[in-house]
Every structure is written in structure tokens, then in C-alpha cells.
Write a structure and sequence with these properties.
single chain; mainly alpha; 9 helices; 0% strand
Length: 205
């Protein structure tokens, strides 16, 4: 029991540090120190830095898959259902910003020795969404591209905020992680508009 608690503490700390600093920018000693163990204990309990990172990414993936499955099961194949699906994805990432931060690091080349995780963990989600809503797409729309557009947009919004044309930032720095409710709803409205304009030509209800 005590060992399991130690592993959970290490994984939680590693998730936060890998999200903030990236895998490459996080010394294993820093993770160990923050988790209250020595490096040898961390290695014995988790298999070392790379295996610990794989555990972090697996847990992130499993949580995201669970969210997508639940959203697909509960939303009708209508335009309202598609916007509800986008809402579920956005709300998950607002509540779990470390997920977007971890993937943003990967897209910039972080943890390149674990490149296989991109296909292993992103592929199933893209396939689930495409299989479910792809038949709704107009002939000139590819659901893969729409799905990735939403993924990229949400990740960019969560990790970097935005600067409005009037130069009033939605948030001044990623460290100030709270996104105002007003800004979140503005982004949500634009996400809805993207989905509706992509899928609207088939005149779904």
C-alpha cells in the first residue's frame, strides 16, 4: 500500500513537471526531489524517467479516450450533437490543462525517443471520431482535418491563451492558468461556428 502511494505521488509530480517543462527539460532528480524520494527509489518504483513518462502519457490517453467515448455515446448525430462533442472536448482540456501541455511539448519534438506514442495514443481518438461523425461530413470536408483543427485550436488556446486585436490578452502568461469565463465562452462560440460551418451544408437538424 505504501509503495502504491509512493508511485501515485511520483506519477502525479511527473505529470505536472513534464507538462510544465517537457520530458527533455525535466531532470529525473527534479522529479524525485519533488516527490520526496531519491532517484534510486524512483527508478526502482517506476522503471526510470522514460518508463515514468510513458506511464504519464498512458494515463493521459486513457482519460481522454474515456471522455471521447462517453461524449460519442451521449450525443446524437445532429449539428447540436456535434457542438456538444466539441464542448466535451474543450471542457475536458480546460479541466485537465496538463493534457494539452504534454501534447504541445511533443509536437515541438519533445521526448523524440517515444515517437511511437503519437500513433498509439492519438490514432485511436481520431479513428473513433471519424468513424462516428465522418458520414455526416459534406463531400468537400474531411473529418480528420476538422478533428485535428479542433485539437490544435483547443491546445493552442489552453497553453498560450490569445491576444485580441485590441491587444488585450485573454491571459498574460501560461503560468496564470485561469482563463476567464467570458473568454472561454467566446472561444466556445467560435468553436461551435467552426463545426457548424464545416458540417452545415448537409442541412442536419
Amino acid at each position: 500500500m505504501e509503495e502504491n502511494l509512493a508511485v501515485e505521488r511520483i506519477v502525479d509530480v511527473a505529470t505536472r513537471l513534464f507538462a510544465e517543462l517537457g520530458f527533455d527539460g525535466t531532470p529525473v532528480g527534479l522529479v524525485a526531489e519533488a516527490a520526496g524520494v531519491d532517484t534510486a527509489t524512483l527508478t526502482a518504483l517506476t522503471g526510470g524517467k522514460t518508463e515514468l513518462y510513458k506511464t504519464v502519457m498512458l494515463r493521459v490517453h486513457e482519460a481522454e479516450v474515456q471522455m471521447v467515448r462517453a461524449a460519442l455515446a451521449s450525443t446524437p448525430r445532429t449539428l447540436a450533437g456535434l457542438t456538444a462533442l466539441a464542448d466535451a472536448y474543450l471542457d475536458f482540456h480546460v479541466s485537465n490543462p496538463h493534457t494539452s501541455m504534454l501534447w504541445m511539448h511533443r509536437w515541438m519534438g519533445d521526448a523524440s525517443a517515444t515517437a511511437e506514442l503519437d500513433v498509439r495514443y492519438r490514432g485511436p481518438i481520431i479513428t473513433m471520431v471519424t468513424d462516428a461523425v465522418g458520414p455526416m461530413a459534406p463531400d468537400d470536408i474531411q473529418t480528420d482535418f476538422v478533428t485535428w483543427t479542433i485539437i490544435w485550436s483547443v491546445a493552442g488556446f489552453i497553453t498560450g491563451g490569445m491576444l485580441h486585436s485590441g491587444h488585450s490578452p485573454a491571459r498574460t502568461a501560461p503560468a496564470e492558468s485561469a482563463i476567464s469565463p467570458e473568454t472561454l465562452e467566446e472561444f466556445r462560440a467560435n468553436l461551435h461556428a467552426l463545426v457548424l460551418r464545416m458540417y452545415g451544408p448537409k442541412n442536419y437538424p
